[in-house]
Amino acid sequence: MEKLIYEKSQKNRKAATLPAVGVEEKELSKLLPDEFIRKVSAQLPEVSELEAMRHFVRISALNHNIEKGFYPLGSCTMKYNPKINDAMAALDGFRELHPYQPEDQVQGALQLIYELQKMISAVVGLPAVTLQPAAGAHGEMTGLLLIKAYFESKGDTKRRKVIVPDTAHGTNPATAAMLGYEVVEIKSNDRGLVDIDALKAVLSDDVAAIMLTNPNTLGLFEEDIQEVQKLVHAVGGLLYYDGANLNAIMGLVRPGDMGFDVCHLNLHKTFSTPHGGGGPGGCAVACRAHLEPFLPKPVVSKDGERYFLDWNRPQSIGKVKGFYGNFGILVRAYSYILAHGRKGLMQVSEDAILSANYLKHKLKKHFIAPHVQNCMHEFVLSGSLQKERGVSTTNIAKRLLDFGVHAPTVYFPLVVAEAMMIEPTETECKETLDQFAAIMLQIDEESKSSPDVVLNAPHTTPVGRLDEALAARKPNLRWEPATV
Fold it and tell me: Which of the listed residues 339, 356, 384 is the one where a domain comes to its end?
């Protein structure tokens, strides 16, 4: 049916009829249900275009962003987005496309998607790729739907469990539960890695998959990954790779070579497309050949020199998004990969690892480092020593704001008390890393000599310390005019 609707739209495209600007209220009632028609005028401020512009410029100047200061947000990879990517996405041939244009008018766009799929396939070591999902968690859902459809096609309906380590991203168990799976959590060992004995204890023929991030959310590479994949595959289960941390290993090792069967990766982290502030995101889901028939349709394919949307996918899980991904984000990811090439992507990972270990070494004497081995692209410290002085990780995070530095991820992962997850990324220079280390050491010293300075921070931000519990219970979402 979707294919028929799509084809009909290609043949019978007509301009949509919109109501005139001065439409009468009685005419409007014919277009909209009564409950959606405003009964009183909107309380909007009457200002000139100049004042409106100044208002938004002032607001933007108050917001912290990656172009304003350091943003060591662990696992979220808030790295610089090259402006050349934006320029490519703004090209007329990409920017002005419509998703229902005939295929012969969008061959360039289809070619870009097709080639980006091939690039990502090479990076992750899995043969089939879809770029339809909107973002990371959406990709998780798509990947687990592939696994679910695969087992159902074999008549294997008893697999109702998904194994998730205690260091997993919160979306992993949430996605599995949303799709009707029973989530089985396993503990980490004293090195912060998957406990093989704990894994063996929960493996059985009712396990559908294990969801892993490698490196994990502690920034540690799962050294026993080959043993893990052998154990899971031995009971007929599949391995799902959460690619949120792929930016630590791309060009160095591939999820497919580790034994993973399906993975998602965040284009807005790995390949430096815009991230944060509400989106848009971008996601790729890759899988092995035995899962390929279940990919979302339509699949971007190639026939000779022609690119087309293949709707003839009888085993497909169906569409997971109204149109094909967030296309502007796909253009940016494509540009980023072309600009770097294989060696460049490898250097991205190597520099991210170097930056993280450099910072960890400078800070571990003043903040507890719960795991002694070298990290990958990020690391986790504990503020427990400072907590003993009455200064919590929350206080440290708020004090960082006074120095024009965004706080790292705090209190995650949950396996580390007073956790601070720090990710410097490969785009920051040594001077910035040294400055951040000096700020952290200053805050540590303040926790001993002048704790009130930390406890009452931030002091320099436009908005001071909030009552977070009250703000969560009673958010103020109503616009009010500014007072001078």
Answer: 339
